[in-house]
């Protein structure tokens, strides 16, 4: 029964991919018109994202005293990347949490704490980039007041969230700042942002060759913040809105933003399709084990 369910899930996933491409024919056309250098750069960039996300998962599990073997880690990271794009509400972390709970007894609150730590690092780094851009553009006049309000709001929000869960309070109280895995997660957040920046820079150069690396990093930081409020698969609509709203900071024209995002969506869909085929054909038994929730 479980194998039948797994096969059905595989078929449904292929149908979703096919439907997405069929209803967005311009995506394939856009990808086929990319230069070879752009294709190679984007491919290496997205492979790099899979690898660094696998390391982040490895360090996160070590932080809560769990461990996956390397191949299972990569497979889980690959599958969750696919789920995260096509599923609602950025559902990749939820997929990982469920799999780890059912297969490796990783408690949900433990996984949530590691996720919270990663996103704190992620928000601080991206926020720092945008803050620097604001100071560079408008000066430091009212910036420090905004920083104070932001820190106060973050502190109050975090405090309310922790206060509502005794289990979460207990898990957070056990965090040790001298734990090397904690800072490895922060390092992973930094590397993932840099790789994302290189991906976006490659796409922007395709449509706006005069784009600078500085502009691309501000663009990246604005796009990354969309992940915190995205309600659509792949943050479609939200990411573009955040980038357009921050246009005064990075100075990239709207047409270039739209063109770069079309390239990004198109290429990433094709990349995920190829990734899914590789995951399926690599090892069918391991592939099916992703959907087998019994503990080994």
In short:
The chain has helices at 2-23, 25-32, 36-63, 70-86, 92-104, 108-138, 143-163, 166-173, 180-207, 213-225, 238-245, 247-250, 254-282, 284-289. The chain is an all-alpha fold and 296 residues long.
Walkthrough of the structure:
The protein has one domain (36-289). The protein is built from 14 helices and no strands. The chain has 296 residues and is mostly helical. The radius of gyration is 20 Å and the shape is globular. The relative contact order is 0.15.
Helix/strand layout:
Elements (H helix, E strand, L loop, with lengths): L1 H22 L1 H8 L3 H28 L6 H17 L5 H13 L3 H31 L4 H21 L2 H8 L6 H28 L5 H13 L12 H8 L1 H4 L3 H29 L1 H6 L7
Count of all domains: 1
- Morphology: globular
- The SSE order reads HHHHHHHHHHHHHH
- Indicate the proportion of strand residues: under 5%
Low-confidence stretches: none
Strand count, sense and closure of the main sheet? none
Number of strands: 0
Helix content: over 70%
Gap between N and C termini: 18 Å
Secondary-structure class: mainly alpha
Would you tell me the overall average pLDDT? 78
- The Rg value, from CA coordinates, equals 20 Å
Separate helix tally: 14
